[in-house]
Design a protein that fits this description.
InterPro entries: AB_hydrolase_1 (IPR000073), AB_hydrolase_fold (IPR029058), Carboxylesterase_BioH (IPR050228). Strands 1-2-4-3-5-6-7-8 form an eight-stranded mixed β-sheet, with helices on both faces. The protein is built from eight helices and eight strands; from the N terminus they run E-E-E-H-E-H-E-H-E-H-H-E-H-E-H-H. The chain has 229 residues and is of the alpha/beta class. The chain has helices at residues 43-49, 74-88, 100-111, 146-157, 163-168, 187-196, 211-214, 216-228; strands spanning 3-9, 12-19, 29-32, 55-58, 93-98, 116-122, 174-178, 200-204. The protein has a single domain (3-228), classed as Alpha/Beta hydrolase fold, catalytic domain (Rossmann fold, 3-Layer(aba) Sandwich), CATH 3.40.50.1820. Helices cover 34% and strands 20% of the residues. The radius of gyration is 16 Å and the shape is globular.
Length: 229
């Protein structure tokens, strides 16, 4: 079972789920979830990864047990993750990001390469402009702050022109895991991301957008081979 802990960052508290390594020897893995998902989304994969390394899954701001400050943005999310890594003093980590978490992971790897050994990006592509619009808010209580969607979604629909520079300055070896034809993410954009990065490998697991949840065994085997290779 994971240990639950929090990291204080200025006016925020960020919640983590921590799995201690069954056997040490590998750098810690830090896992960033997608929009609307919490750290528990990684439970099945994290338990497998923890056989050989410490694993830390993060509730991004506005999600789960982390603070819901009402102010959101991709840069703020990345700054929070950097704050966690600096606070925990883990050395260089293997950083995972799924969907929104993948974009955040790219910003972290670009701005603080000293913190990242390897990068795993799950079903994200180079952001391209798309028709603006918000999804309909689900009914009932949510495990995340809907204001986060309202503020971050426009940044994805109308991407910052600086994204190419972000990708061009990522030096960490990177595994890009694509979800294949059933994913709503344009797979040509995922391939474009892999080709843009300095040292990247593209692997497709035909599972749709939620690769680690839909095909956990294949995902775990693929990422473990990459991390330990």
């Amino acid at each position: 079972m994971p240990e639950l802990r929090t990291v204080p960052l200025k006016e925020l508290e960020l919640a983590l789920r921590v799995w201690r390594a069954a056997e040490s020897g590998h750098p810690p893995a830090v896992l960033l979830p997608a929009t609307g998902k919490t750290s528990s989304d990684w439970d099945q994969v994290a338990a497998g990864l923890a056989a050989g390394r410490a694993v830390i899954a993060v509730d991004l701001r506005g999600h789960g047990a982390s603070s819901w400050p009402g102010e959101y943005g991709l840069d703020l999310l990345a700054s929070d993750v950097i704050g966690i890594l600096d606070h925990l003093a883990l050395g260089r980590v293997d950083l995972f990001g799924h969907s929104l978490g993948g974009l955040v992971a790219c910003l972290v790897a670009s701005s603080r390469p000293d913190l990242i050994r390897r990068l795993v990006l799950e079903d994200i592509g180079v952001p391209h402009p798309r028709t603006p619009g918000l999804p309909e808010r689900p009914e009932g209580e949510l495990p995340f702050d809907w204001r986060m969607v309202e503020q971050v979604r426009p940044q994805i629909d109308n991407p910052d022109p600086a994204w190419p520079t972000v990708f061009d300055t990522i030096t960490a070896p990177t595994l890009v895991v694509a979800g294949g034809a059933s994913s709503p993410v344009p797979q040509q954009h995922v391939a474009e991301l892999a080709s843009r990065l300095a040292d990247a490998r593209l692997v497709t697991i035909e599972a749709g957008h939620l690769v680690h949840a839909a095909e956990p065994a294949a995902y775990l085997s693929t990422v473990t081979e990459f991390l330990d290779g």
